[in-house]
Structure formats: C-alpha cells, structure tokens
C-alpha cells in the first residue's frame, strides 16, 4: 500500500502560498509586479505545483 496524500498535501500548500504571494505582489493600478524576477520564479514554481496536483488527481 502506497500512501500518496503527503505529496498532494505539500503541493497544495505550496500552490496556495505562492498564489497568494503573487496576488499580493501584483500592482493592479500599473499592472506590474513589484519584483518581476521573483514573480517569474514564483509563477514557475506555482505552475509546477499545480501540474503535480492535476497529475495526482488524474491518477486516482
């Protein structure tokens, strides 16, 4: 029996934290990020975590 709830929970927490961080750093008046280089890194990590969440969901 293989328990895969740990990685799913971890990727969900990562996606929530990074999504909130991206939302907070975005300036809606100027439509720009405060720190563009860091926003790129956050976006890539967010997309990878969402990818793994969807992949784990489809396997079930």
From TrEMBL:
<protein>
    <recommendedName>
        <fullName>ATP synthase F0 sector subunit C</fullName>
    </recommendedName>
</protein>
<keyword id="KW-1133">Transmembrane helix</keyword>
<keyword id="KW-0812">Transmembrane</keyword>
<feature type="transmembrane region" description="Helical">
    <location>
        <begin position="35"/>
        <end position="54"/>
    </location>
</feature>
<feature type="transmembrane region" description="Helical">
    <location>
        <begin position="7"/>
        <end position="23"/>
    </location>
</feature>
<keyword id="KW-0472">Membrane</keyword>
